# Entry
Amino acid sequence: MPKRVPTGSGTVTDHPSRETADSGQLIGDSGVTVEAGSQGGLLYVSNPARLEAALACLLTTALMQRTDLFGVSYTRGVRAKLEHAPPSVRRSWVEVGPSLRWVLEDSGEFPDLPELDQLTSEQVVELGGGVDAATYLVRCPRRDVVVKLKSDGLEAEARALRAWKPYAPRVPDVLGLGTVPSVGERSTKYLLLAALKNDEGQIVEPAAEYLDRSPASARELGRAVGAELHRMHQAVDKTGFGNFADSPGSERIYRSWSGYLADFFALHADFVSQLGIGEDRLQATLAFIRACPFVAEGRFLHGDVSIRNVAIFGYQPITVGLLDPNPLSGDPSWDVAPMMNNVAYNELRARRENMPSKLLERDRNLLDGFWESYPDRVAEESLLTAQLVQALLQAEHRQDRLRHGQADTVEVDVSYEFIRTAVDRVAP
# Structure
């Protein structure tokens, strides 16, 4: 009879044979298999000497799932610490997700990948920084692949990447797209992309990290972003404006960008009115939006232009690519507005706090460099409208973060002040 060790959430068993646990989930190469139940589970250990590692695996896996207790930032910190742990513990969290396991083992997309229990800790790595999608770097023998898992938006991302490719070759190649089998109401989709490599063949460095160590390069980086974004904006979507493919809101196609933004603003009118802006000025703002000189044909927009989504390909001179889009079809002003708003927010904050800001200097240099290399004219009215609509989203997001203790009141107040000032300009 195997020995049974109580764990609190299940049972650890020194089991003489792995064959009895084939339906379970193998954790790394630890000889540990988890059998989950509604109230706990069984954890089988093929080698008695590994009982200690088994308990560590079970505890690590439990911690990784309890972001409600520890918070996302804490669990990411745990993952970082695991890099220095024994291989069986270090790797255990990677193999917990059934969606990732299905993509790697059963989708047919990875015929060149060894069995999961034969992988080293460096072959499947969770990538941080993504807001919505769970993202992993999978290192195969002759290629590196990025796997993204999400319930929506991945078909739209694949379509946009393919549309940009003839104009901007540094966007990722789409290697695969599909759906993970599921019995739940919302299925999980997967997108496979070729990992971006720099001129030296290494995984690209995010621009945010590069500027942390080389802040004086902000203006040159801005020029590189302007040139790359202009190339991407040459891709035209002749089907209409707004969200597309499997993105939320794609059920309606707009005939004009002004119609899309006017509806967008109207959906947030209650929030705007809470800032002391009356109905007459709300209607005047809507009239301003509808009259703006936007492009006649939609361009494939990145939708989330920031230095965290810019990758450095070369350093002398700086060359970049953009990744992790939130794509939609519209006017190029939408992709410029985030850089404009960053400067405006930091200016308002510096004025309130009466102190210089290194972020303000960096963002001004980025924006100056951008305009030096983006050759197309962007109408002031169109840009102001894009800034206002995006500021609404930013303000609501910051308000929610403040409720959860993740932002300070100055952040929120600056967003409110910016919205009031923008409305004063469009509807004096």
About this structure: The chain has 15 helices and 16 strands. The chain has two domains: 1-85, 205-426.
